[in-house]
Every structure is written in structure tokens, then in C-alpha cells.
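task queued by scheduler; priority normal; single chain, no ligands, no partner chains; default sampling; output format set to C-alpha cells
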Amino acid sequence: MKNIIFVMLVLVAFIGCKQTSKNDQNTSQNVETSYSEEELYRPEFHFTPKKAWMNDPNGMFFYNGYYHLYFQHYPDGNVWGPMHWGHAISTDMVTWVEKPIALFPDEKGYIFSGSAVVDSNNTSGFGKDGKIPIVAMFTYHDMEKEKQGDVDFQSQAIAYSLDEGLTWEKYADNPVIKNPNIKDFRDPKIVWDAVNKKWIMVLAAGQEIMFYSSKNLKDWEFLSNFGENVGSHNGVWECPDLFAMQTEGADEVKWILIVSVGSGGYNEGSATQYFVGDFDGKNFSIDPDFKNDLDINKASWIDYGKDNYAGVTWSNIPDTDGRKLFIGWMSNWQYATKVPTEKWRSSMTVARELKLTKTDNKYQLKSVPVKEISNYISKTVKKDIISIEKGKQTLLTDKKLVNFKSLDIQFTIKNLKEDTYTFCFDNKNGDTINFGVNNNEQFFFIDRTASGNVSFSKDFTPNISKAPYVANGNDLQVRLLLDKTSIEIFYNDGETVMTEIFFPKNPIEAFSVKSENFNLEIENLIINELNFN
């Protein structure tokens, strides 16, 4: 069988998935390249602050045509420091405009993670002159108390905005929830419980989640807790979220509880797990079918890559839209402060739509990129069928056809055999990011061990990252987003997702594929170039 090494009748040069030993990596943390760090590493369409440090997404809400994204921010350095809430807005969750800092630390502490809601009925009483208040709830972190060895250095406070989230007034009677002598007591996420007509708040407390309720966003009553002996407890629990979802194709509503863990993810380091269950206005209980999966797998992960953490959902999405929209911090606490950027550090993942499915009594929370990203397609390369001989490495496209800075690629691998299928992005220097599926040992993988600058942290590439692969038929659908220095892979309509960052010393220039033992057939290859100028 002849190799098909052209796309859209254009013959392109052969480039293989060149591997480089980890021992051969440059030990310098400096990126020696003709491109500046700003040109080489800053994403095209993933939100990144103009300068300085960023971590968890906070306070996300939609109002009057704008998606608001707040984030943990230290404006005076490129590593973690006194936390503020940075702010950005978007009309489509794809391109963002950074706004002035929203919340500053004060004498009560740093401004840690939290959430915001649109108080349409003015339950808080903060509204004036017909202006609807936006109410944010956040954690105060008292560094002086922590240094003194006190336990109660975190408490919950609120602020409100009457100009659609641009400026904020902190509540005079903060904190609204004092610390009950718990060391890690933070990250409040508020949701409206339409059935019981009250606000519900979930809060991370050590290694469990605490539930509170309120009628006015000021006075809070403790309801219950959750978490003992379920899920991953390898790290402190953080950044919870709680929301109801319709199960696709069924007349059934379930509640989803998202909980991030600071360490001990599927591929080590930071990661985000989820639970499927029911909420009666006071207690969250795991669905029995979902518990069966937990008993086997110990934890269910929203993303198996190393770089999707602290993700939460937007509030106030209109019923006419109906989507559950999510975004995460695209980094990992193992190395976030060491990545080779200087002017700025960290990006967010692409915004994603969450979907809940149930197949053979198994619940699964799927995620896919928001549909709005298709509005930025500037060029499309298509090929119906590509046949590749075993053991060969075939280039699918090159920079003459598309600009590799930002791509949205989709394809189907047909008739998977007991083989390893490896896809490769690389450049002329041999920097390589590989991903694919091992259908012998049943796992997906991302291999960034030879992806360029990896020496800044021993935790960045200790092993290849893996995710479990459970075959469902003979074909595998793949979608991936490439944005200069990140890759987000969505298998089978988001059943399994892997997100990872990487730092090549020169821009990516080629995309190739190989199979180890059998011929490979790819159908419906679509390569969309994305343009944001």
C-alpha cells in the first residue's frame, strides 16, 4: 500500500516523530531561540494575563452579553504572592479583554478563590436605583495569623458590584462566615437552589466539602458535609463546584460535585475529580451506580492530563443557552512557578461545555471545547481517507498549508488493532510532543519528554502521562486543540480528555503519525487553522 503523503493534492516533505533522550535535554532554564519568549510562548487564544502571576479561575458569571472571568493574580511578580482578583471579559469565551484588578488584599487578608452570582431578585439588598447587584464570595487569608501558627487564618467574605462586575465594594460586616477552627477552609462556590428557593454554598474544608445555605447571601447556615472515604484524598481538597445537570437522552437530573486536589492526581500533581449524585437541599449523596465505579477506580477525573486544575463553571448562563460552561487553570502546582516564561505565568484552558451521559449504568462527565471557537476558523484542510503502511511515519501537513500556531484538528482512527498509534507535533530542532493510544495495554498517552525546554522542573516530565482507554467499538474519534505551547485532546466526544503544556525551543512545524505493527487508516481528517487577528 502506498503512503499517502499529501493533503489537498500538495506533496509535503517527510518528517518523523524524532525522539530525544531525557538525558540529552538542555539543563539551562533559558530558551535559546531567535524568537522572544513573548512571541514563542504566549498563547493565541487561551487567556493569559498581560503580565505577572495567575492561578485559579474565580467569580465567573455571565451578564448582559459578557462572560466574566476573575482569577487569582499577583500583579507584582511572576510567582505566587499576595492574592488579588484579576479580571477579564469576553463576548464568546474565546478572545478576552483584560480589565483592571477587581479585588485587592486589605488588613483582613489576601483575596483567595471564590465565586460570584447575579442577584437578580436583590435578595442581598445591595441593589440600588434599579441596579442589579453582582455578589462575590471569597476567602480571606490572614497571613499574619498563619505565620503565628494559628489555625483559623481563613474566613469567608463577600463584596458586591453595581456596575456589572467592574468595581466592587466589600461588605462592611465581613467575614460572613468565621473559621470554625479548620486550617484549610476556603474557595466558596455559590449556586441558586431553585427547588428550595435559597442560595447553596459549597466550601473546601481540609479533605471534605461543607454545605451552607442562605436566603440573603449575608447570613449563612451550615447544612452538612461530604467526602469521608470517597474519591481521592492524596492532597488537600480545593475549589469545589456544585450544579444540577440533565442526563443526556434521559428524563433525569443529577447533581455534580467537582473537587480539585492539590496533589495525587492520576498523573501526579494537581488534578480535578468529580462526583455524580443527588442533593436534597441539605445533603449531597453519591448515586449508587456512580459509587460502583468509584469502588473500582477510586476517583473519576474531569481531565487526565497534568495541566487542568481548579476548574469551575460560569453562573447565570441563560436558560435559552442551557449549557454548563467550565474553565480551568492550565498548569500544575508541581512546577507552575518554574515554567520558562518571565513576563507572565500561566494560562487558562479553553472554555468547555460539560455533558453528563449514562451508558450501561455508568455515569460520565464529558467535556468538549465551546462551539464559539469555530467562529475563528480561517482555513480548512480536509482529507477523507489517509492510508498509512505499518512502521512508517507520514507527515500529514506542513506550515505551507496551515499556520501551526493555533489549530483545531479532528479525525477518526478506523479499525483499531492491538497496536500503538502515535501522533507527533515537532519542529526542525527535534522538539517533539507525542500523543496517542496504546491499544495493547489499553491507555491513552501524552509524551512531552522531548518537547523542548523540560529541565526547569524534575516533575514536568518524570514519565509519560496516561489515561485509561476502554474500547467502545473499533473506531476512535479524536479532536485536539494546539495553541503554540499547549495541547488539549478530546477522545470520543470528550469521554476522555488530556491537557498538557510544553515549551519547544522553536515553533511547531509538522504533524505526523505512525503505527507500530499494522497498517493505519484515518478518516475524515479536518485541520482547521484558527486566526485571532
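post-processing summary
- Helices lie at 37-41, 143-148, 288-297.
- Residues 1-34 have pLDDT under 50 and may be disordered.
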